[in-house]
From TrEMBL:
Residues 169-188 are annotated as: Disordered. Pfam families: MobB. This is Molybdopterin-guanine dinucleotide biosynthesis protein B. It comes from Aromatoleum anaerobium. The gene is mobB. PANTHER family: MOLYBDOPTERIN-GUANINE DINUCLEOTIDE BIOSYNTHESIS ADAPTER PROTEIN, MOLYBDOPTERIN-GUANINE DINUCLEOTIDE BIOSYNTHESIS ADAPTER PROTEIN-RELATED.
Amino acid sequence: MKAFGFTGYSGAGKTTLIERIIPCLANEGLRVSLIKHAHHTFDIDHPGKDSWRHRQAGCGEVLIASQKRVALMRELRGAPEPDLDCLVKMLAPCDLVLVEGYKHAPLPKIEVRRAARPAAALHPTDPWVVAVASDCDEETHLRTFDLDEHEAIARFICRYLALPRRPREHATRERAKRSGAVLRLTPR
């Protein structure tokens, strides 16, 4: 699995940019996962629900499964926060792991900047920043993108990481072949 990050200060638009790039990567037939760093306490469960009650009672891990998804929640209970390598190993195999946050992680990343949220640039002091996405002109030797260039950014990531391109039709056909299903993509 290869990883590529997005870094920048809060409010720069990292989440929105990633949300718009993911379909471009998926259309290339890539299996994409994401790790997002939260700087605060967060909860994906709701107070009073069974899994919340089990965590509150002291479970270290609670796994919730349905026909649609599986979610694993792990309480750290004072243990150190897992590093990025450990988190990547928790994921199911995929082609690409996008990482939001983790400003200082040693992985290639795009710095996301927005004129409405001025802040010191990270790329001059972070050798892992390989490109900048911004809504204004940036003074840099790095490759720059407008925040709306979703497909161009997706192509850049694929080229940078030398990811295989399998357009969605081909990827669908390959999955069907592996599962033994008969798939017809053209009308009779």
